[in-house]
Amino acid sequence: MKKSTLILALAGFICFYISCKPENNTEKTTTSSTNDSTQGELWAEEVESRTILIKPEGWEENYWKTINKGMDGPLIFNTIVDAVLAGKKKAYDLLTDSVLTVEEVKSIIAAGGNANPEEPGVEQKIKPDDLSMIRMREKWHFDKEKFRLEKKVIRIDLTYKKLDETGAYIGDKPLFYVYLD
C-alpha cells in the first residue's frame, strides 16, 4: 500500500512538474490582441506606404494602368470626406496633428487653395478628381506558415493637386488624415 501511494504521488508530481514547465517560445513569435485578429510575426508596428494617383511625367499609359489597376480615387475621396462631413470620422491636420472641425474641413475644401486659371485670383473648390496621393500608415504581420504578409491600415492621409497659375500640376498639398478603426 505504501509503495503504490508513493508511486502515485511521484507520478502526480511528475505530471505537475511537466505542466508547469515554461514553454520554449523561440520557434514562433505571435502577436494578437482583442481588437486585432492578425497573427504572425510583427514586421512593422507602423510603416508608411504611398499610392500616387497622378501619372508621373514620362510614364507610358499602359504601364501606369497596370500599377494602379482599378484605382478609384474619386470614390476614395468621397467616402472619406462624406464620413468626416457626417461626423462619423474625425479629420486631423497633416501638419499639426490637431483635430479639424466639420466646419474647418468644409472651409478647406471650399477654399481649395488652387487658383482658377480662367479667373485669376479666384480659388477653386477641391473636387474628387483633385486627389493626387494617398498615404497609409500600416501595421504589418507576417504569417510564416501561410507565407503571407497581412497589412492593417491604421490611418489614411489625403493630398490633392497643387496647381500653378496656369493650372499645371506642380506637386501635392496636404488635405487631412483619418484614423481607421
Give the domain tally.
1
Terminal Cα span: 64 Å
Largest sheet: 4 strands, antiparallel
* Strand numbers in spatial order across the main sheet: 1-6-7-8
Q: How many beta-strand runs?
A: 8
What overall form do the CA principal axes indicate?
globular
Judged by helices, strands and strand pairing, the structural class is: alpha+beta
Rounded radius of gyration (Å): 27 Å
Helix content: 25-40%
- Poorly predicted regions are 4-35
Which strand-content bin applies to the residues? 35-45%
Q: What order do the SSEs take from the amino end to the carboxyl end, as H and E?
A: HEHHEEHEEEEE
Number of continuous helical runs:
4
Mean residue pLDDT: 80
Give the helix/strand layout.
Layout: H1 2-20, E1 41-52, H2 61-67, H3 73-85, E2 91-92, E3 99-100, H4 102-111, E4 114-116, E5 119-124, E6 131-143, E7 148-163, E8 169-179
Antiparallel strand pairs: 1-6, 2-3, 4-5, 6-7, 7-8
Please, could you describe this protein's structure?
- It is a single chain.
- By secondary structure, this protein is α+β, with helices and mostly antiparallel strands.
- It has one domain (40-179).
- It has helices at 2-20, 61-67, 73-85, 102-111; strands spanning 41-52, 91-92, 99-100, 114-116, 119-124, 131-143, 148-163, 169-179.
- It has a 4-stranded antiparallel sheet with strand order 1-6-7-8. Strands 2-3 form a two-stranded antiparallel sheet. The chain has a two-stranded antiparallel ribbon with strand order 4-5.
- A hairpin with a 2-residue loop joins strand 4 and strand 5 (119-124).
- The longest helix is centred in the N-terminal third of the chain and has 19 residues, at 2-20.
- The model is unreliable at 4-35 (pLDDT under 50).
